[in-house]
Amino acid sequence: MSHVEIDLKSAGAARAYDLMSNLIVPRPIAFVSTISASGHANLAPFSYFMIGGPNPPSLAFCPTLGGGGTPKDTLRNLEETGEFVVNLVTRSMADGMNQTSAPYPHDFDEWEVSGFTQVSSSHVRPARVAESPLSCECRVFQIVSHGEGAGASRYVIGEILAMHVAENLLSGEEIGRIEPIARLGGPDYIDLADGSRFALQRPKA
Ligand SMILES: Cc1cc2nc3c(=O)[nH]c(=O)nc-3n(C[C@H](O)[C@H](O)[C@H](O)COP(=O)(O)O)c2cc1C
Questions:
Q1: Residues with Cβ within 6 A of ligand 1?
Q2: What is the pTM assigned to this prediction?
Q3: For 72-81, how does the pLDDT look when each residue is reduced to its tens digit (9 = 90+)?
Q4: What's the Cα-to-Cα distance from 88 to each of 27, 40, 129, 143, rounded to whole Å?
């Protein structure tokens, strides 16, 4: 196989974004529930998301800085409170999840446009999404900054305190097959239930 080498530093951030988000796929989606210190609930999806090691159980996701280097609401809330819930997203949840990704004002409650049902968490203040087959209650371990300005990374590393797993996934001897959607390049997603692909345009606030 022959390859083209691209120097990402000179390519610039916009090109780097296109290359990374179109080529490093599929990415699972962390649908993150937080609450600000003043009590405003927030829901938003993040596909720069991975699990960490199991001891202690951890995960990480990356809310990049927005235009002008401003932190997204999820990051602001986590800097204030340190508590969040990561919910996985299935095909039937895709439209509601996408609705929450518009750039709403800081005190806007995205649960209202999502259509999802809140369930109280056991260990943290933010609610979990009842419709999700897996929710992880988390506490921030560390937020790591890499870069400044629009597109710079803020890695939120969280310790998973508790998991809420759909009963049908735990009914047999082995853990059942979960079927979330995952992010591809551009507007595209893949549904792991049947391997089909679909596209969603991002909504405006
Ligand atoms: C499927 C999907 C995945 C996304 N992944 C990320 C991501 O990993 N990092 C990020 O900064 N924004 C990501 N976004 C955009 C954020 O969801 C969007 O900026 C949102 O408004 C942030 O909400 P907040 O300001 O309430 O935290 C994604 C959007 C969608 C629809």
A1: 29, 42, 44-48, 62-64, 72-74, 98, 101, 103, 183, 202
A2: 0.98
A3: 999 999 999 9
A4: 12, 22, 9, 21
